[in-house]
Write a structure and sequence with these properties.
There is one protein chain. This protein is an alpha/beta fold and 115 residues long. The protein has 5 helices and 7 strands, in the order E-H-E-H-E-E-E-H-E-H-E-H. It has a 5-stranded parallel sheet, with helices on both faces. A two-stranded antiparallel sheet has the order 4-5. Strand 6, helix 4 and strand 7 form a beta-alpha-beta unit. The longest helix is centred in the first third of the chain and has 11 residues.
Length: 115
Amino acid sequence: MKRILIVDDNTEFLQTLSTVLSGDFDTIKATGIKEALDILQEITVDAVCSDFNMEDGTGLDLLEIIRQQGLKTPFLLMSGDDSRALEQKTKLYYGDFCCKTDFDLVRKIKAFVNT
């Protein structure tokens, strides 16, 4: 079973998304950038799905740090804003972007992780 790290400081959304995806993946939860980086030091994951806006920084910051560390882990940035500029910035670091309000979010995450 593939292991996915879900990062979001909204604990309700984090728990809901983790529960929905747990039938298909081994889900690990982090509530911010620091916690996510600590987890990535300890275990290997097959993909990271991160919120954009969090209390201790942005998902884009997390993506940049991960890439600077040489990790090529697939990364999906999620945001409530369907921003073209944010999507383009994410692609600069070889990440993908998905709007959290997309009715097809779960299917997109599953497809992303399984590619």
